[in-house]
Amino acid sequence: MRNRVASFLLVLVSAFILAARPSGAQSKEPAKPFDLIQWNGGKFIYGVDYYPEHWNETQWESDAKMMQAASINFVRLAEFAWVKMEPVEGKFDFAWLDRALKVLNAHGIKAVLGTPTGSPPAWLYAKYPDIAAMDENGVRYRYGSRRNYCLHSPNFIAATQRIVTAMAEHYRNHPGVLGWQIDNELGDPLCYDASCRAAFQKWCRAKYKTLAALNKAWGTIFWGHTYLAWSEIPLPWNTLGKAHNPSLALDHRRSHSAATHDYLKLQVDILRKIAPTQAITHNDMGMYDGVDYSVLNKPLDFVAWDNYPMFGEDYSNSLGVGLAHDLMRGSKNNQNFMVMEQQGGLPGWNIFWGRQAAPGLYRAWAYQGVAHGADGICYFRWRTSRYGTEQYWQGVLDQDSYANARYQIVSQTGKELAKLTELLHGSKVVAPVALLVSPDSRWAFQIQPLVKDFNYNRQLGSYYGAFRRAGVNVDVVFPQGDLSGYKIIVAPSLFVVDKPLVEKLAAFVKNGGTLILSYRSGVKDENNVVTDQTLPGPLAELAGIEIHDFDPQTNQQQEVAGPDGVGRPARVWFDILTPTTAETVLSYTKGYYAGKVAMSGNRFGKGRVYYVGTELAAEAYLEGAKLEAQGAGIPLGPELPEGVEMAVREKPGKKILFLLNYTEKAQKVTLDRGYQNALTGETEPAEVQLPAFDVKILTTP
Ligand code: GAL
User: Fold this and answer.
1) What residues are paired with 114 via a beta bridge?
2) Which atom of ligand 1 is nearest to the CA of 184?
3) Annotated catalytic sites, by residue?
4) Per-residue confidence (pLDDT) for residue 15, from 0 to 100
5) How far is the CA of 373 from the centre of ligand 1 (A)?
6) pTM given for the model
7) First and final CA of the chain: distance in angstroms?
8) Which residue, judged by its Cα, is nearest atom 9 of ligand 1?
9) CA 171 from chain center: how many Å?
10) Which of 124, 140, 191, 654 would be a feasible disulfide site paired with 132, CB 3.0-4.6 Å?
11) Is 317 exposed, middle or buried (0-12, 13-18, 19+ CB in 10 A)?
């Protein structure tokens, strides 16, 4: 068998020698990107989420002074203060917020105001019980907590319009108000009440036009679930276990995502009309998959998101957070973004959820955001609350306002960022590799998770991590995005595909791009129906393979080997490939399919398609990523020790390198040459010393 198997290395390398490469020109950015630094009067946005309504008014002045001393020039206010702004239906009180703004503005601090719809007042629930979402058992959420409203409740829509209009009218010309954050972390919950069911039926009707088309698309003949009236269409109740129709369930996710977008847009439209000079954003949640951020973020001026890296014990692995930053950037054409909630202390509600981080890590995480394209960092929150659910969620300060170690490091970082602003302004992340994230595939895997140990995000993370560890910047693209500027596209487990996406990928490869697919790609059509073509379905010709058998084995380790005979562990899923035009890269070594193909490489047009039929270990992905990048003429970064990250921003004539050490040990990175330290102005030797938890920002002089 081995003789038949082309060398792992040779196949990979020769592919790149033979294939002509696209020019590497970076694409995208149709309209002029929003300039966050210019918006903030030329200052790098550096802020805190502040709740003046939680504190005695006499504290506001000393808070503002302390903020100013820490170089804070931005606050987000009011996103949970609906009851204070509209204490009685239709009666508004902004006097307290005006006073808070006055104090803050006097210290050079500008604000974004949150529309407070994420936490409606108790009186609203009491008067209009239908504004509460209903769970799948038909029980309405009771008052308490937050974010438990029904997106389709007419009473809630009316209340939203009223408060947003009142706020916009009051603040449209306020010189200290830069703009707006819509609601707070939109997405959950799914509501199962009659208005949401009717809205889903309406959405289906708009999509399919006829019931015949819907019945065909969903395959409702299965178990005889054929619908003869739109009103018969149910919501996919989870109480039915996993027995609901996957096509219906996918459309339900899509319709909820669309409804979330429409609710955001309702608020955006009010603000644009009344306050056209103020900018609008929303605080997304990174890897959260309840909504399609590439759609949700469309009406916004720029993306903002909430970054909490402190869950669990190991803070040295930064790759997951890096992916979330890049996904957020990718959700709006790779425009620079801001972090609206950056972890400022321990997380926790009724218990603490992490362990305390060394102060330097709070700085490193802030710079990580900047390295990935953030032009603004705003810490959650200024001071830990004395009240309510989040007494254990630390702010920068604790309740006693003592200038603790977190405050000191936040101050240091603020001063540094002020110094770096000119250098950073106008720079952005440029990436030759893109990770294709498919919201439809993510949802389809939520609905049918395949096997116990399958995890779509882990697949994304493995490929992403490999290129990032090789020192290569990675963009995230969505199926509707522009693929043309990249040299390599990685589309892990591209489960749900439609014709336009297949055609786009084919064109990308034909023009010389490299496409990497992994197991369970091309299995479902856009209706979440299994293809009747030989797997990988519409991607089979591109990949040059057929799959006639597979073996899901959650608990078993397989092994794959190239011609070097070295076994590499494989797990979770084993697609058994039959090459048609492809060559073998790796084969299985165990079981009844020992010797059969696990990974293939196929020349297609001027490019190349790899299909990885299983899940490999991190080292194998790294090995592959390095070879791919080299073959595509992408320069590799330096060898990076575990727990050290490098990311690069650039602008004409300048490269800005961020070296981030998340470990408690001093580390060393050897670069191709010496660079200038952007903070000290001194030249750093090629061998850069990184003290524990430290960051170096280096630039070409
Ligand atoms: C975020 C949320 C904040 C705060 C924080 C800590 O998700 O937007 O309002 O609750 O978590 O729990």
Assistant:
1) 181
2) 8
3) 185, 341
4) 33
5) 22
6) 0.95
7) 54
8) 184
9) 31
10) 140
11) middle
